[in-house]
Design goal:
Elements lengths: L2 H24 L1 H8 L10 H21 L5 H23 L8 H14 L19 H12 L4 H27 L3 H11 L2 H7 L5 H17 L4 H12 L5 H18 L7 H25 L5 H5 L15 H12 L19 H19 L15 H13 L4 H28 L5 H17 L6 E4 L3 H6 L3 E4 L6 H5 L4 H12 L3 E4 L13 H6 E6 L9 E5 L10 E4 L5 E6 L4
Parallel strand pairs: 1-2, 1-3, 4-7
Antiparallel strand pairs: 3-5, 4-5, 6-7
């Protein structure tokens, strides 16, 4: 293509994107009300429109500067600008979820708080030591932050956001060296900063750290000639970070062996063995600690969340696991970006790409084996998005001709702009199990216990995070994550009925008929004799089909409204008023 034609493409595409981005930044309210149909409360979506403005502006500037990729002075500032704008876009998106944490993260918060305060690894000081968290590394890091005086939920949010931003920066460093193209840098950053990354970086859970470690392994292989020992140490850390780590360790070990053989070396050598051995020693240390400290080889989540996962799902392309992967790529518009991975030159791939592909394959194996995940926004895909988009950006760099690359980026950026805004708006309108909502449940029952003059009240509830962390009331976790006894007997109605009514005798039972409640213990005659239906008449958030209070705690002279049946037996207790 002639230079003049290239200039026309640059001015048209780049100018249109920059103007569109500037309009989003200058008139966000108009775009919320007219251009996008997001939620019923447009003011909540302003951050999304600002982010879209940054996205479109950054794409436009990347189009302008990509023509000058062979001019060192221009690339000196054009490459960092593209990386910075993509990270700024991501950070702006996270503002949309600045007041949301997933309640499951609160379980780790509770253990981190107990450890920092000297109570040991317990969810609440009155509970025995039981492992209810999923990531030892994340729990220890948050406990360390608490010892420094930092609020644990805020530390979790900003550390998660920081780790994701750092992952984007690592990708930018690799691409700056490999492609010297602002378009590929910005494309990669915009692809990483989709709804799964934004949601789970801001959630308070460890998935952003997981993604950073996995990408860090790839970065080590890219940067270092003798990479196996540093990678072995990183994998040992990863074993303490996520329960699916053994699958990743095996994949990286096999990649190391393949690379050694490809270079003409022996089947295995000491460095390759270290890639598997050092993480295995860390895993054995974790198991030994569990047995000595918790008295069990497995954590509570293993028992509470055991399901019908299995290898057969790997071969069922219509099954839940594969559907989860395909739906994730479709709902995030990454279905347009991921095929670019296949544009890479496949002949004699460098070692770091081999390792990256091994990690991708291992995580997808785990996702399909586990049949996906019930939480919204594809939590299990989020940790491999930086690696996947890094490889896709390399494929983008293989496209011949500036116009082809630019049009490809524009198409994908526009798809991301619309899809990301919709996904995040819908997510915030109906987020899964907010930490604050569970905290409100605990506060409500604590206030009700004061009203009933109950000393040291106990609540049986299936959501544990906010209540375990804030400790406003003693908790029996019907979800089993911080109760090993319940986790191991989740489906045993007879056992659970006897355990709750005779051993625990909680003052209140609340939640949904899932987890332990799905066993049907609340439908037994013994439970009906001990407990009476409890309703919060003017508190919609407290509406539940599993809401009970112990009969012997209700004083007929109390200020609560008591409803009796025709035989004179207490049928319901109605609670009015806010506390």
């Amino acid at each position: 293509m002639a230079v003049q034609d290239l200039l026309k493409v640059r001015w048209f595409l780049g100018g249109a994107l920059v103007l569109a981005g500037a309009a989003h930044l200058a008139f966000p309210v108009k775009f919320v009300n007219r251009a996008y149909i997001l939620t019923a409360t447009p003011t909540d979506d302003i951050h999304l429109i600002h982010a879209l403005g940054i996205l479109l502006t950054g794409a436009g500037l990347a189009v302008f500067t990509d023509l000058w990729e062979d001019r060192p002075r221009m690339s000196f500032w054009a490459l960092p600008l593209a990386a910075a704008l993509s990270i700024f876009y991501f950070l702006t998106l996270t503002l949309h979820l600045q007041d949301w944490w997933i309640d499951d993260a609160g379980i780790t918060f509770a253990y981190s708080r107990s450890l920092a305060e000297g109570s040991g690894l317990v969810a609440q000081p009155w509970l025995p030591p039981e492992e209810g968290y999923s990531s030892s590394t994340w729990m220890l890091l948050l406990s360390f932050m608490a010892r420094l005086g930092v609020d644990i939920p805020m530390a979790a949010k900003y550390l998660g956001i920081g780790f994701s931003a750092a992952s984007m920066a690592l990708c930018a460093v690799i691409l700056a060296r490999q492609t010297r193209s602002p378009l590929t840098l910005f494309f990669c950053g915009a692809g990483i900063a989709t709804a799964p990354t934004v949601v789970w970086a801001a959630s308070g859970q460890e998935h952003a750290l997981q993604a950073f470690i996995l990408l860090g392994i790839v970065f080590c292989v890219w940067l270092l000639e003798r990479w196996r020992w540093p990678v072995a140490v990183a994998l040992a850390l990863f074993v303490l970070t996520r329960p699916e780590a053994p699958v990743i360790v095996i994949a990286v070990f096999l990649a190391a062996v393949f690379l050694t053989r490809r270079a003409g070396g022996p089947l295995v050598n000491a460095a390759d063995i270290a890639v598997a051995l050092i993480p295995f020693v860390a895993f054995l240390g974790l198991l030994a600690f569990r047995v000595l400290y918790f008295g069990d080889l497995f954590p509570n989540p293993y028992y509470a969340k055991s399901s019908a996962a299995g290898l057969l799902g790997l071969f069922n392309i219509m099954g839940l696991g594969w559907s989860y992967v395909v739906s994730g790529l479709r709902d995030t518009a990454l279905l347009l970006a991921i095929p670019l991975i296949f544009m890479m030159r496949l002949k004699q791939l460098p070692a770091w790409i081999i390792v990256a592909l091994a990690i991708l394959g291992a995580q997808l194996f785990f996702v399909v084996w586990a049949k996906g995940d019930w939480m919204a926004q594809y939590r299990f895909l989020m940790p491999i998005l930086p690696i996947a988009l890094l490889l896709a950006a390399l494929g983008l760099g293989e496209l011949r001709g500036f116009t082809t690359r630019a049009l490809c980026v524009v198409l994908i950026v526009l798809a991301l702009a619309q899809t990301n805004a919709q996904q995040l708006a819908l997510f915030k309108a109906n987020p899964p199990t907010p930490f604050a909502a569970v905290t409100d449940v605990g506060n409500t029952f604590s206030a009700l216990a004061d009203r009933l003059e109950i000393e040291d009240p106990v609540l049986a509830h299936h959501d544990a995070g906010g209540i375990a962390y804030h400790r406003m009331i003693r908790l029996v976790d019907l979800g089993g994550l911080i109760s090993r006894t319940i986790a191991k007997n989740m489906d045993d109605k007879a056992f659970l009925t006897a355990y709750l009514l005779e051993d625990i005798r909680p003052d209140f039972v609340f939640g949904s008929r899932n987890f332990a409640a799905a066993s049907g213990f609340a439908e037994t005659a013994a439970f009906a004799r001990e407990y009476v239906r409890l309703e919060f008449a003017d508190m919609p958030a407290m509406t539940s089909d599993l809401s009970y209070v112990r009969r012997d705690l209700i004083d007929p002279a109390s200020d609560l409204e008591l409803v009796y049946d025709t035989s004179g037996a207490l049928q319901r207790v109605l609670v009015f008023g806010q506390w």
